[in-house]
Write a structure and sequence with these properties.
Blueprint: H1 3-12, H2 20-25, E1 34-35, E2 43-44, E3 50-53, E4 58-65, H3 70-75, H4 79-83, E5 87-95, E6 103-113, E7 116-126, E8 131-139, H5 148-155, E9 159-160, H6 166-171, E10 175-177, E11 184-189, E12 193-197, E13 211-216, H7 227-236, E14 241-254, E15 257-268, E16 274-283, E17 288-296, H8 300-311, E18 314-316
Antiparallel strand pairs: 1-9, 2-3, 3-4, 4-8, 5-6, 6-7, 7-8, 10-18, 11-12, 12-13, 13-17, 14-15, 15-16, 16-17
């Protein structure tokens, strides 16, 4: 499995030296090692790592990844690489100074999503302790929206600090998993996604180890009537795998939540290995969280029941 590409893809569906005073005034999302002085009107988000102004549809999302992810992401951090994700580059990449970073680059861009055009700024940060992407998104033409100057003033206050411990990052997630069923937590991404595996390596390469991804939504949950179709599309569009085939689809209501379970087969895009894939989503009125298992097909019997036990222990804060 291509760890960085798969997780980065799941999530992407998102000049002036910082002055010393910025570090003192910077606000760090809970559990994050990346902070900034947020623009007026933006407050720390309770559903992802970053800041938001829900009334104006504006967000700043902070996504942290392993240190060694920088080279892979930087190789695609250009006009061609971003275009493949639906993002159109306006200018950049250009060098962008971030306090505490080794290297950082900025791209100004735009993207159309759900019929809405957004202005975007993306800063790729490479530091000794982490790789991070800071993405600003603003609906184009929104009344009272931040100006380009407002955004770039805030991005000039970016600062890197020593990352929080993994237990502290997990405690800050907008969901809880009461039973990890023997899977080992290895990484929190963007304050909204938890990665787990089993085995000696933190990074699952090809299908040598199982990968479990638990992700909460960054947007409003789908209406009840569309949840099954939404889940099927999400299952079919998982990054890094192909030939996805759904074998079972069920829906049930337990503890005031709707649970939609889908499992089936797929092929690893890089190695060609046959895979077993399962997805279990918990939907509440306006929120949801979903768990995904990707494992070599030969190990389905070893992990399928354990994964279901883990997923069924998910609750939303």
């Amino acid at each position: 499995m291509q760890f960085v590409g798969r997780v980065f893809g799941l999530l992407f569906v998102l000049l002036v030296i910082a002055q010393p005073g910025f570090a003192q005034e910077a606000v760090f999302p809970s559990g994050s090692g990346i902070g900034l002085v947020p623009p007026a009107g933006l407050v720390p988000s309770s559903s992802f790592s970053g800041f938001e102004d829900p009334a104006k549809g504006t967000s700043i999302v902070v996504t942290e990844l392993p240190v060694d992810a920088y080279a892979t992401i930087a190789a695609g951090f250009n006009r061609e690489g971003l275009l493949a994700t639906g993002i159109e580059t306006i200018s950049g990449p250009e060098e962008w100074s971030v306090q505490g970073a080794v290297v950082s680059k900025l791209i100004r861009a735009s993207q159309v999503a759900a019929g809405v055009k957004y202005r975007k700024w993306i800063v790729l940060v490479g530091a000794e302790s982490t790789t991070a992407m800071v993405t600003v998104q603003i609906p184009d033409g929104a009344k009272g929206a931040l100006s380009d100057a407002d955004v770039e003033k805030a991005l000039r206050t970016l600062v890197v600090r020593a990352p929080a411990s993994l237990p502290d990052q997990i405690a800050s997630l907008p969901f809880k998993v009461s039973d990890t069923s023997g899977f080992r937590p290895v990484r929190v991404i963007a304050g909204a996604t938890l990665l787990l595996t089993e085995g000696p390596n933190d990074v699952a390469i090809n299908s040598m180890q199982p990968m479990v991804i638990i992700a909460s939504n960054l947007n409003t949950a789908p209406e009840a009537a569309t949840r099954l179709e939404f889940s099927k599309k999400a299952f079919a569009s998982l990054t890094g795998i192909k030939d996805v085939q759904s074998d079972n689809e069920t829906s049930s209501e337990v503890d005031g939540a709707e649970w939609i379970e889908i499992d089936g087969t797929a092929t690893d895009s890089a190695s060609g290995d046959a895979l077993y894939v399962a997805q279990i989503a918990r939907f509440e009125t306006n929120r949801y969280v979903r768990a995904i298992l990707i494992v070599n097909a030969t190990e389905k019997s070893k992990y399928a029941d354990r994964f279901r036990k883990l997923a069924k222990s998910m609750t939303i804060n």
